[in-house]
Amino acid sequence: MTCRISSRQLDNNALQQVLQNLLVDMDLTMGLTGQKSVAERDRSMLQRAT
To answer: Which of 49, 33, 19 is closest to 41 using CA atoms?
Structure first.
């Protein structure tokens, strides 16, 4: 039996992984800063990357 993965499936899997990682990072950051919801965040908490 041969398992074939199309490039579109691979791209979708990679995108899903990136989005999952962003959600995990956001959840961790919110927990460390004591925030319980995204609604508690505002622009003052953002820092421009240099």
So the answer is: 33
